[in-house]
Amino acid sequence: MVKSRRKAQYKLFTLGYERKSVASYVELLKANHVNLVIDVRETAWSNRREFAKTALATNLASNGIKYLHFKELGNPKRIRNTTDSRAEALTLYETYLSENLDLLNNLDAEIEKAQKANQVVCLTCYEDEPEMCHRSVIITALTRKWATLVVSHLRLDGINLAR
To answer: Could you report how far apart the first and last alpha carbons of the chain are, in Å?
Structure first.
């Protein structure tokens, strides 16, 4: 991995939209001063239309929050469809990510750009519980690379600090 040049502490949030209304989702972001959401779903589609890519991006923009989709950081369908458990899928995703460091480096560069612009970033996906989502694998890799990264998982019942 590329060694991080960052010395200052930087806060990064994650948020899953499971069991949330779009209004409560946006309110959590606003309450934590998030102004950039990075969607890490492979396919930014949802049965809940308000969380599909275009609708979500439009809603966020109307609330002053920028949206980016990093589809390449999604847990690939070929992994999700060939495993018997979520734990196995996360283990395979960890291997996938370690074999494709450029994906993580692209995210790291975007976070660094946001930090320099004094923006607050939130990674988003479906699962409410981060340990049940590939966001946890991404966060683990980022915190190994960037010791001053402080991660908070946003939840309706409060913030669960991961690191």
So the answer is: 20
Residue 35: count other Cβ atoms within 10 Å of its Cβ.
18
The answer to whether residue 2 sits within a structural domain is no
Number of structural domains, the chain? 1
CA nearest to 63, candidates 34, 102, 41: 34
Q: Does the residue 5 lie in any domain?
A: no
Phi, psi of 93 (to 5 degrees): -65, -40
Q: 69: domain CATH number? A: 3.40.1010.10
Q: How far is 161 from 152, CA to CA, in rounded Å?
A: 4
Beta strand 121-125 pairing with 36-39:
parallel
Could you list the residue range(s) of the whole structural domain that residue 118 is in?
A: 10-161
Residue 123: inside a domain, yes or no? yes
pTM of the model: 0.90
What does each of the 163 residues of the chain score in pLDDT, given as a tens digit?
444 455 577 889 999 999 999 999 999 999 999 999 999 998 888 888 999 999 999 999 999 999 999 999 988 888 888 888 888 999 999 999 989 888 888 999 999 999 899 999 999 999 988 888 899 999 999 988 888 888 999 988 776 655 5
- CA–CA dist 120, 32 (Å, integer): 8
